[in-house]
Amino acid sequence: MLILAFDTATSSSTVALVHDGVTLGERVAASRALLEAADALLNDAGVVPAELDGVACGIGPGSFTGVRIGLAHARGLALALGVPVAGVSTLAALAQGALGVAPAGCVVVPVVDARRKEVFALVDGVEVCVPPADLAFPAGAWLVGDGAVRYRDVLEARGAAVPPDESPLHLPRGGAHVALAAAYGPVDEVLPAYLRAPDAKTIAERGAA
Questions:
Q1: The whole model's pTM is what?
Q2: What is the pLDDT of residues 24-53, one digit of tens each?
């Protein structure tokens, strides 16, 4: 299958073209330039949109605006091309991308900046939203993602190992999304995973209270 995969939930958006599990190309772009990056990627590979068999998209958690942008692009492309779409956890994709790179036996914990001095993380199969100082992980765990970069000092002081800031391990990779996509289906089956109420909603609820 020829799949276009992307994720806009973190501080850097990624888009990749994957054919039968092999990544043909990948680009990093601002969310607003995602479609332009995707077009360039297809052109580089000599592929036209009509040849795509499906779309895979990161559904968060992460930036609320970013997640919405990503889902809008995924739904629009899938409808326009008449192909199915799959939603994949951004955190799970980050962890998948670090497999085979982290030291043997090392636990990988994906960490995404949640703003408001909190992080989203996947720990023992459970997605959580906590302050970085409260994030639970075994000593020596590998922490990847823009949240790990932002709170490096706090996390390393507690025994975590964080790859260099420029490491591609901090980006959710398209190949990981495709590997994790259990099934491709209708666009209305792909829903966002915010994990926490958006800031605007939280403020409104406070006012009502």
A1: 0.91
A2: 999 998 878 888 999 999 999 999 999 999
For the chain, helix (H) and strand (E) counts, in that order, are 7, 9
Upper half-sphere CA count for residue 57 (Cβ side, 13 Å): 33
| Rg of the chain over all Cα atoms, to the nearest angstrom | 17
pLDDT for position 203? 42
Listed residue (63, 70, 27, 57) closest to 145, CA to CA: 63
Q: Token digits for 63?
A: 């930036």
Determine the Cα–Cα distance for residues 86 and 170; give it in Å rounded to an integer.
Answer: 22
Secondary structure class of 110 (helix, strand, coil): strand
**First-to-last C-alpha distance (Å) of the chain:** 51
Q: Which domains does the chain have, with CATH numbers?
A: 2-90+172-208 (3.30.420.40), 91-168 (3.30.420.40)
